[in-house]
Amino acid sequence: MILLVLMGWYLYENKEIFSSLKNLDISDILMIAFLQAISVGIVALINKLVIDHIDQKISFSDSFLLQYANNFLNKIIAKGGSVYRGGYLKAQYAFPFSKFLASIGGVYIIGLMTNSVTGALLLITIYFTENVYNTFVLIIFLMVIAGILLLVMIEPKFNGNNWILRKVNQVLDGWNSIKSNRKLLFNIFILSVLGLLSSTTSVFIAYRGLDAEIKFINSLLYSSISPIANFVNVTPGGLGINEAVLVFSSEVIGISNDVLLLEALLPWVITLITSFALGGVSYLTLNSRLLKNTKELTLS
């Protein structure tokens, strides 16, 4: 809440930054929305591959609609989408919630690894080419990489009946299951890279649309940092958390704080619109499927 208030106050005190919006073309907005749909499809495919591996096959249609419904509900309440996805998979596919936690845990770990390695390499490259660096962000990337490498080399298990420890163990079980399948691991890695490139292109278009000069490599760094910030998702849609981390990293990204904040909000607004439109339709469609399945079970 404090972050949201500070962000709102900053925008109010610097209303002139909104003048950049006049440079934005409708084609840029449509392209960003299209790339966001591509990203949703990539995440949906990753989730399907992992669930297929852990338990049973689900349709890509359900996985795609679930991802949009997930985005829709996350805009209303933090983590609301994950709870709904877990409930739907349990009701429609008898997919246990414990295995659902295992599936998202494995996906998170691979995604964090992909972004952290990319981000660390980019920070080093930018340092040698532009003599600009951010030690704090680099340390975060290296800590994530070290932690995941540790998970690759060992298979930790926490003892105890604590609810949190049980959930952590379920996530680690999912990761251990995924890392044992090299083909699956490779496929998820490639899809994660494609998702990162899609996000990077979206950021690049948004900045250029706002008439801000940015290199593609800096857009790629932005897209690498953003998911790390979103991992701490304690607000609806991660609003405020992501922007705070990105503003802190503005120097190495190469964009001033005001333009960076405006660009960060632009995809969020577009996502908000598409989430409520397509996500709302997806949510209603999935609920209709659940209702139909329930009636069929009752009649049988």
Distance between the termini: 49 Å
Order of helices and strands: HHHHHHHHHHHH
Number of helices: 12
**Which assembly state applies to the chains in this document?**
single chain
Provide the structure class. mainly alpha
Number of domains: 1
Percent of residues in helices comes to over 70%
Determine the mean pLDDT.
76
Sheet having the most strands = none
β-strand number? 0
What Rg do the Cα atoms give?
20 Å
In the predicted model, the low-confidence regions spanning at least 5 consecutive residues are 234-241
In short:
With 300 residues, this protein is mainly α. The chain has helices at 2-13, 26-54, 60-74, 80-93, 97-130, 135-153, 163-179, 182-209, 216-230, 241-248, 250-253, 257-299. It starts with a helix and ends with a helix.
Draw up the topology in text:
Elements: H1 2-13, H2 26-54, H3 60-74, H4 80-93, H5 97-130, H6 135-153, H7 163-179, H8 182-209, H9 216-230, H10 241-248, H11 250-253, H12 257-299
Helix pairs in contact: 2-3, 2-5, 2-8, 2-12, 3-4, 3-12, 5-6, 5-7, 5-8, 5-9, 8-9, 8-12, 9-10, 10-12
Describe the structure.
This protein has 300 residues and is mainly alpha-helical. Helices cover 79% and strands 0% of the residues. It has helices spanning 2-13, 26-54, 60-74, 80-93, 97-130, 135-153, 163-179, 182-209, 216-230, 241-248, 250-253, 257-299. Helix 2 packs across helix 5 (97-130) and helix 5 crosses helix 8 (182-209).
